[in-house]
Write a structure and sequence with these properties.
single chain, alpha/beta, Arc Repressor Mutant, subunit A, D-Maltodextrin-Binding Protein, domain 2, 3 domains, 5-stranded mixed sheet, 3-stranded antiparallel sheet
Length: 299
């Protein structure tokens, strides 16, 4: 059994993030022939093809996508290991983006842990919806962003999955109204699209009564008994009640929460910033520590 080469995995990631062998070669400072040779050796090591021909574009096989997932985890752990043995105290400035859907629930834990460990680091936080954060990630205005994952964001690392649930006020009965009043995000919101598609498939009439990017505004409409909303498990608050299939509400797809990196960080991943890697590690650990069971129990 061969030990997998971390340098080859970094090249694999660069190919996935850049979309071509040529751009990947530039990112990892190798010739294109050297990149091709590395990928050939990887295929020999796992005894499976990694790529499939699709014109001029790079397309991964199913085994290639599985290897890419392992590659991201292995390289991340490699960086975390080396950073953990660094004697230099971290200092500087790091820019973090997060939608307000997640900010209330996740930021206290993340910033508390990170600041205690790295008191000399300044964290600038920007709260915007996922599509806007991804624009800032691509333009290099953010170093890291906690986002809602989608298929068109393959470069993002999935760090948590939660159920998406219909919720109503525990003191009101908006869920019994016809058409069903809804409080949701703006039209480009993935959760909104998932809900409307599922209700339309079930033939249930509804009207979108409140629409906002701001999760607090949507939550206020739910708690006031004005409309039914959808939230991931850890976002459910006291005064809300979960609506299930027994009450005529269909199951919804899971929410995938992901970590996206700034354009420079995501493309090369060779000279990863210890500061950014440290914050990324704290984000993963903090989200692992959040208990869905305790959240549901407290409602």
């Amino acid at each position: 059994m061969h030990l997998i080469d971390v340098d080859q995995l970094k090249t694999l990631m660069a190919i996935a993030d850049s979309g071509s062998f040529t751009k990947a070669a530039e990112a990892v400072h190798k010739t294109q022939s050297a990149v091709s040779m590395q990928m050939k050796r990887l295929e020999e090591d796992i005894s499976r093809p990694i790529f499939t021909k699709d014109g001029r574009s790079v397309k991964f096989t199913e085994d290639g996508r599985r290897l890419l997932d392992y590659a991201r985890r292995i390289v991340r752990l490699s960086h975390e290991c080396m950073n953990s043995f660094s004697n230099a105290a971290l200092s500087g400035h790091v820019r973090l983006g997060v939608p307000d859907d997640y900010a209330d629930r996740y930021l206290p834990e993340i910033l508390g842990r990170f600041t205690r460990t790295n008191p000399k680091v300044e964290v600038a936080v920007m709260c915007e919806p996922t599509p806007m954060l991804m624009e800032r990630i691509q333009s290099g205005d953010l170093d890291l962003a906690i986002i809602t994952h989608a298929q068109n964001r393959p470069q993002a690392e999935i760090i948590r999955k939660e159920r998406l649930l219909f919720v109503t006020s525990s003191k009101h009965s908006a869920h019994e109204e016809t058409p069903l009043p809804l409080a949701l995000g703006r039209p480009t919101c993935q959760w909104r699209q998932a809900v409307t598609e599922r209700l339309e498939a079930d033939g249930r009439s509804f009207r979108i009564l409140y629409s906002s990017w701001n999760s607090s505004a949507v939550g206020a409409a739910i708690l006031a008994g004005l409309a039914v909303g959808v939230l991931p498990e850890t976002a459910i608050r006291t005064g809300m009640r979960i609506l299930g299939e027994g009450e005529g509400f269909p199951l919804l797809p899971s929410v995938k929460i992901a970590l996206a990196r700034g354009r420079v960080q995501s493309s090369a991943l060779v000279e990863a910033s210890p500061l950014i890697e440290a914050l990324a590690g704290h984000i993963r650990q903090s989200l692992d520590n959040i208990s869905i069971k305790d959240t549901i129990k407290a409602v």
